[in-house]
Design brief:
Keywords: ATP-binding, Cell inner membrane, Cell membrane, Hydrolase, Membrane, Nucleotide-binding, Transport. It is an enzyme of class 3 (hydrolase). This is ABC transporter ATP-binding protein. It comes from Paraburkholderia rhynchosiae. By secondary structure, this protein is α/β, with parallel strands linked by helices. The protein folds into 2 domains: about 140 residues, P-loop containing nucleotide triphosphate hydrolases (Rossmann fold), CATH 3.40.50.300; about 80 residues, no CATH class. It is about 35% helix and about 25% strand. It is built from 9 helices and 11 strands. The strands form 2 sheets. The protein has a 6-stranded mixed sheet, with helices on both faces. Strands 1, 2, 3, 5 and 6 form a 5-stranded antiparallel sheet that branches. Helix 3 packs parallel to helix 5 and helix 4 packs across helix 5. The relative contact order is 0.17.
């Protein structure tokens, strides 16, 4: 694979088999610098497996992974995160019995290894402000409403100021007001920090409004790629996933 610098991540022929099940098959995924890319598909389409493959949590059965122009197939999650790819998980990943401040401080471990304690504290304050969780910094994370817990999980990941932030269903369980404000956070992160975002999400209205491009998976294979407008009118996607109600 060659990389001209416009791609932060590329996969070629990436596949993962679990016994007799081919969860991801021959995936060629490109993530362009500066975009918000949505990865969508029905349950069982291979989205979570793809996330685990590109973040190093599982190793591919075949194919290649290139991140920031470096071949890194089979690398560990720690090594990949230190490069600047940081991910969240479907279920909020934070320490329930720690304060929000200390949770975000943990997120500075990668990317601020040589920073002073003062610099890390300033990073926590800045991150909390961006995510809108400053009023909750001294609260125990496990005591907060679900929507705030989701934001805390994103804050932990973003504290490292990754080049590529991978968000696994960050809008699950949020009400419409929380969804709108969280999408604004994504746009601000991209705009103000030149951070590229990969978003796995089932909220189709949100995905269509915030993403520059979409990649649709179906049965572990890439069914379509395009802008939201192109995906919305793609007959194969409509038949497999979106349904007629999304045509409008």
């Amino acid at each position: 694979m060659s990389n001209d610098g416009s791609f932060l991540l590329r996969t070629r022929g990436l596949s993962r088999r679990f016994g007799g099940l081919l969860a991801v098959s021959d995936l060629n995924l490109d993530i362009r610098k500066g975009e918000i890319l949505g990865l969508i598909g029905p349950n069982g389409a291979g989205k979570s497996t793809t996330f685990n493959l590109i973040s190093g949590f599982i190793k591919p059965s075949a194919g290649k992974l290139e991140i920031f122009g470096r071949e890194c197939t089979g690398w560990s999650p720690t090594k990949i995160s230190r490069m600047g790819l940081v991910r969240t998980f479907q279920h909020s990943s934070y320490m329930r019995t720690m304060t929000v401040r200390d949770n975000i401080l943990l997120g500075t471990v990668h990317g601020m290894a040589r920073a002073s304690q003062t610099e890390r504290k300033l990073r926590v304050e800045e991150t909390a402000d961006i995510l809108g969780v400053t009023p909750y910094l001294e609260s125990l994370a496990g005591t907060l409403p679900h929507g705030i817990q989701r934001l805390v999980s994103i804050a932990i990941a973003f504290a490292a100021r990754p080049k590529l932030l991978c968000l696994d269903e960050p809008l699950t369980g949020l009400n419409q007001t929380e969804v709108v404000s969280t999408l604004d956070v994504f746009r601000a992160i991209r705009r103000e920090f030149d951070c590229t975002i990969l978003l796995v999400e089932h909220n189709m209205k949100a995905v269509m409004s915030v993403c520059d491009r979409l990649v649709v998976l179906h049965h572990g294979q890439q069914l379509a790629t395009g802008t939201p407008a192109e995906i919305r009118t793609n007959e194969h996607v409509i038949a497999a996933y979106l349904g007629k109600r999304h045509d409008k």
